[in-house]
Amino acid sequence: xxxxxxxxxxxxxxxxxxxxxxxxxxxxxxxxxxxxxxxxxxxxxxxxxxxxxxxxxxxxxxxxxxxxxxxxxxxxxxxxxxxxxxxxxxxxxxxxxxxxxxxxxxxxxxxxxxxxxxxxxxxxxxxxxxxxxxxxxxxxxxxxxxxxxxxxxxxxxxxxxxxxxxxxxxxxxxxxxxxxxxxxxxxxxxxxxxxxxxxxxxxxxxxxxxxxxxxxxxxxxxxxxxxxxxxxxxxxxxxxxxxxxx
Length: 246
Fold this sequence. Notes:
Blueprint: E1 14-20, E2 23-29, E3 32-37, E4 40-47, H1 51-59, E5 61-67, H2 73-81, E6 95-97, E7 103-105, E8 109-122, E9 126-138, H3 147-154, H4 178-181, E10 197-199, E11 205-206, E12 242-244
Antiparallel strand pairs: 1-2, 1-5, 3-4, 4-9, 5-8, 6-7, 8-9, 10-11, 10-12
């Protein structure tokens, strides 16, 4: 079976959030779709390893924010590649509470839907939630972010918990770009060493001339001289997930 055929299906990119007894959780989803019009219901798919699943199962409510096309890569990195058990994903993010009580993310979004879970279906690696839309709103007339545009522009990898993840020996790698992204830094040509390097997970760019003083890396430090334990400051990916920006 050629799994790349599955990547020809169309998707958007969304923020799915929930809350229970003061604990907030959220993740980036590309599997959100309308299933009925009367009553208005949508379905979302959540991996069993996601912290959000625990919160969603307890609360029975969720919200969906439709991301803008120009959503910062850092926001996608935080909600898509980091665990809510380790970081506060909502720090510095504008939210509102609507009918269900789930936090609705307003930053970098074009629309939102507030939902109550009506049906839960165990699908193996994921759980499918069908929610009744209690309230919804439009935030802007900007173009929404699609999964195809995200992959084409940034050449970024699908998270391992994504329904569209295709394993190829590298965590989170999709078949079409694993060979060009998960390559040890020392295998790249020397002239590229002083160029900016980009994290293929979240889009963070490391500029050798600037270094990263916050991490104790002085200006002028080539990428190859970064310590092996270097991690992306946005999504916590290792050096193997960086490639020359050019």
